[in-house]
Amino acid sequence: MSLFKARDWWAVSIGSEEIFGHSNLCVANIDNAPSQLDKVIVGSYQGIVRIYSPQSGKAESLKAEDVFLEQQLQHPILQLEVGKFVSVSDALHLAVLHPRKLAVYSVSGSSASVEHGSQYQLKLVYEHNLQRSAYNMVVGPFGSVKGKDFLCVQSLDGTVSFFEQESFAFSRFLPNFLLPGPITYIPRTDSFVTVSSSWQVESYKYQVLAVAHDADSKEESQRVVVGKKISVDWTFNLGEPVIDVTVAPVNNASPVILILGERSVVCLKDNGTLKFMKKLEYNPCCFYPHTSMAEDTVMYLAATNTGQMMVYGGVTLKWAAKLEYAPVSIRVGQYQDLKGVITTLDADGHLTCSYLGTDPSLLVVPTPESREINYDEQDEEMKRLQQVIRESSHSADVLPKKVSEEELQIQAHVPPNLDRTSVYDYFLTTDCIQVSTEDGVKDEDPIPSITVKITLSSRSGLQNVRLLIDSPFPVTANQGTFTIPYVGDSNNPSQILVSFFMRGNSLPSKTVARATATYHLPSGPPRIAQCDIKLPLKLVCKPAGPVKNATFKLTLDTNRNCVNLNDIFPDFITSDGSGSSNAMGFQIFGGPVVTLLSSKSSQRYRLQCDVFEAMWPVMKEFLDRVVKYQLQSGAKDFQCSFSSNLPLQEYFDLIEMHLELRRHAERYKDLLDQRAKQFRAIQRRLLTRFKDKTPAPLANLDTLLDGTYRQILKLAEGVEENQAALVRCSMGLGCATHIINTLLKLQFNLTDKEMEVLEASLTPEVYCDGEQGWEETVDAAISNLLRTCLAKTAKDQTINPTAFEMPPDSSKLKKHIMQLTDRLTKGGRLFIEGQEPGQRTVKATQAVARPPSGVSRDFSTDDTRSSGNA
Amino acid sequence: MPCQARLLETMDPLFVALNLFRRRKFEECVDVCTELLQKNPYDQSAWHLKMRALTEQVYVDEVEVDEEGIAEMMMDDNVIASVSRPGTSLKTPGTGQGAPSAGVRPMSQSGRPLSGFVRPGTQSGRPGTMEQAIRTPRTAHTARPVTSASGRFVRLGTASMLSTPDGPFINLARLNFAKYAAKPNLAKALFEYIFHHENDVRNALELASLATQACQFKDWWWKVQLGKCYYRLGLYRDAEKQFKSALVQQPMVDTYLYLCKVYVRLDQPLTAVEVFQQGLEKFPGETTLQTGIARVYEAMNDMSNAVKCYKDVLKHDSTHIEALACIASHHFYTDQPEIALRYYRRLLQMGVYSAELFNNLGLCCFYAQQYDMTLQSFERALSLSDNDLITADIWYNIGQVAMGIGDTGLAQQCFRLVLSANNDHAEGYNNLGVLELRKGHVDQARAFFQAAQGLAPHMFEAHYNFGALADQVGDLQSSYNAIKKSVEAYPDHADSKDLLMQLKKHFSVL
């Protein structure tokens, strides 16, 4: 992040598909021109060496006279160095390191009369063949010779070979070598500094290296395979990988060693002690020391992989500038009349000479999407939108209008017959659905299944439609989700077969499954389509012999003569013919038998069962079928009613049981919480015991931990059992609520709208998960009804909502339900705010004189014995 | 890459690999090394280089990793005093000097002021109990691992498996650690590989302890690594010992940073600052150490010292973004939006280009009465925002601006948009409630306040608003409960205290 960018002074993009390494850039007065101006020498891994003389004012295009020389060499160029490498001359020469060769060239120019006529030549002076693959080299006046530069090549396997100009001197192995690191030479102490693979800075005296040869072998060669151990002058443990090492001059002091680590810059004095270090917060890629004006500060440039260049004086950031490219190498040179030009080279060959300026690093901020503003139109649009917002905020609770035609249609076809072979056993055996022993249905007869065909068709073709099947517990589907890659139009619909069967051992409170398809319109917005699947009673019930006596009985009155039960339940005629035209038995799988009786003389039907709530599935099916049957037989004004006392006591018992189970669940939770806390406390104590340096006795803490653990497991099992019971009880409560609601409807002849309100308040949907329970929800809903539409006086109407908390007992709820039935008896009407109570249909049952209910005069399980009973 | 292939033909592959590593092309470097290892499985240099390349791909500076898991927080067995003296603990920051009150500067769950710079650990608080910690609503952005030994780091482990489809590069179970520990050339890179790439702290610890024995406890680096392992394993006192011993041998910046991390985790902020100061004596002007001091002060709610330290940082590194952002947010919350604006503009000039920055610029412009730039900045912020949480915050601020200019209709719509972008935005609920209350919709307002209370129990505004509302409609019990929570969240709130007093008086009369 920088405020400014480096200003380009001269730039050129070199080569195509060439790669440049970090030591392929060199800045020196290579042609030994009298003007002492620097030239830029660049070599690439493809073996091309180029020499440039940057001239100012030509940033836009490269002129021919800027290029001194461009020459293809035989081998890849690993490194370029400039020095006095030729013994007979004081002039600067160019040393080029190839993988297996070290060559020294002289660069000479012959000037011509016109400016661009100058000719430059690269002439090979001498070369050394290398026995090992080279990694890098270092040059300098080794051994403190005057006016000469020697060469030292480090190979990839850790030998350093020294060349005293034209002649080979000696080779040495570096001790403890693994990977070659950067190496540099300090003239003042006449020693080499390198960084080993164990991330230590090591310094070797040239003298030590030179004398450390075996006495036996007089002759030195590059083919050394063994060597005497070389002793290290000093080491410094750096502790991080290193990118580059260099010697930096300091004004009025001895030079220092600058090390660019991967995470910091470290500066050492030449005796190996730490001068300063700076932790970097970026990944550096190269750096270069710079002479500083101030005393005792080290100046250096560092570049990052993101193309930032930082100028540091010691640990303080002096300047930050943005570069065009992330450089691999950075140098400072003097061209024409400009000193200190920063020369950078990146891996793809962008060579740039730049200087620091206060040009802001302009971030081109993309302008946000703007359009020509037409104020009139804008006003209008604003008005329209405001209107829409106002409308939607006023009628927030009005359901969104149904789209006239859905894009996707779902149709479910429920076959009249159950599957010939049930898929239940298949799923049980293949373990597709895990059925634990207590969950499964226990019944001697096989559990039937039904396979429903769901047809999806779209108007114009849809992709990626997901179909979800929601089956009411205890009924389950063999597959819950389907993904249909493509749904065609009505000529080419997609069909899906899904089987339903009963799984859980509990009463079915609902036998309607629902298929929901989610899809995206081609234009993007998501849509859903739904379809109800009405499952037959046969899926959850089987025919059974009628049972004569039962604990609970319900009597329903009608205004038509009783129909033959065999007519309305043709699918439930038992094979052994134990049922008859006015008595029929239904057994819920794994559950009790429900008996349906019809009176021969009066217009009544009776349901009886040992379990109160189990009557619901049969009752619902019976009511549906009898109404349909009567309609078909032409009776338009068929009415069904209920006139005896509501079986509220049985209902309240169920509520009590449900609440008890919920309280159990709470208690289990508290206990579990407490035990878990205890467990953690013991754990913590044990932890401190174990951590203690002086071992102390555990004081039976381990036994306590073990015991608590077992308690937690026990409790968890208890929670699971309780949850299973709660689920069963919830289903039963749902069934019972259905019965109560239906009876209320029949008794007070509620309209459909009123029934909706009642079902919404005294809801038969009993959820067992979540924070809110059924009791408080229903209590709140009924209290609300009692305070609004069923309120007796205005005093009652104050609304004071209470917090939704689990009630300590069910007395309040019972009282409220009693009040509800009371007020309904007294002619209360159910409606919600904004609705008018609809006109009830004629009270047909008023005129009919009834015998007192609860008398079982003309009902019997057996036709033949009915007269005897009467 | 064609030229890469040609290079391989003419040059030594190890040189190519080294070159690729230096240019940080780690994947290609790994490929070249893999080829070398196929030819010669015992090539130690290729093995070493591949290890380093793999490590470097996933390397995160351990100094910056600071994710405190729920279990660590709850099972904290390093607590020295359960009730610490004010100003000596990070858990109860208390009222620092020079810090604006909670009424002006929002607080995070733990009662620390929101920082100007998001770092690991700045947003999460310390929940009271384990149950609360587990139940606290968590989104993908605020999720925290259950323990720091799992969670975040596991991902790195699986990433390593992906990068080498035919199994892990090094089978740690079959490695003879004693053999490698004696080879310092290999051992250090191997340690970093195990620690960072494999994220296997136990094996790393074993290697480190063997290696430090092998070098006769003379290498400070191994001690630091041992300390890092101990820190990860939660053995803070052992880690402290190792770091201290390493510092005696060779003072290094990183070691100071690690040691301070230990002290912060041990909840000894004052010791941490002291160690930072010692480090600064050895390394004057080291910005990471100065930043460390500033962070500790900020966490202790001592804003004047924190800002002073951040300014010191800027003296040595004027491009330090964290320092700039924190100073700017401090100035903003101390009623100097013009100065904050200058800092934020500098960030923008430096190339920070994000939705958050434009959002802050917009707010500063508004409060500095530069209305022409306000909406433009927010527009930019909205167009740059790529995540719903940020979008929600921007709309929330636009809503504040709308409230400021008195356009309640716009404000209401803005807050609605906040909720559509992020329906856990407690501040949005609270402000919507205030607007509804102004319109006289008591029920709606109550619902909004309740939602805000549930989402952010640490925010006193929702509690107070609910309490005041309940007091007005006569529900004194609820009012009392809510006001008590409000006073708990912000003990110096005068209105809450007044109301509480009134209620108490009222109850005592009854």
Q: Could you explain the architecture of this structure?
A:
The complex is a heterodimer of chains A (870) and B (510). With 870 residues, chain A is of the alpha+beta class. Chain A is 22% helix and 33% strand. In chain A, a hairpin with a 5-residue loop joins strand 20 (264-268) and strand 21 (274-279). The longest helix of chain A has 48 residues, at 701-748. The radius of gyration of chain A is 48 Å and the shape is elongated. The N and C termini of chain A lie far apart (102 Å). Chain B is mostly helical and 510 residues long. Helix content of chain B is 67%, strand content 0%. Chain B has 27 helices and no strands. Chain B has helices spanning 2-10, 13-22, 26-39, 44-58, 70-74, 130-135, 152-163, 177-181, 184-198, 201-214, 220-233, 236-249, 253-265, 269-282, 287-299, 303-316, 321-333, 337-349, 355-367, 371-384, 388-404, 408-421, 426-439, 442-455, 460-473, 476-489, 494-509. In chain B, helix 15 packs antiparallel against helix 16 (303-316) and helix 26 runs antiparallel to helix 27 (494-509). Chain B is elongated, with a radius of gyration of 27 Å. Chain B starts with a helix and ends with a helix. Chains A and B meet through strand 21, strand 25 and helix 6 of A and helix 1, helix 2, helix 4, helix 9 and helix 11 of B.
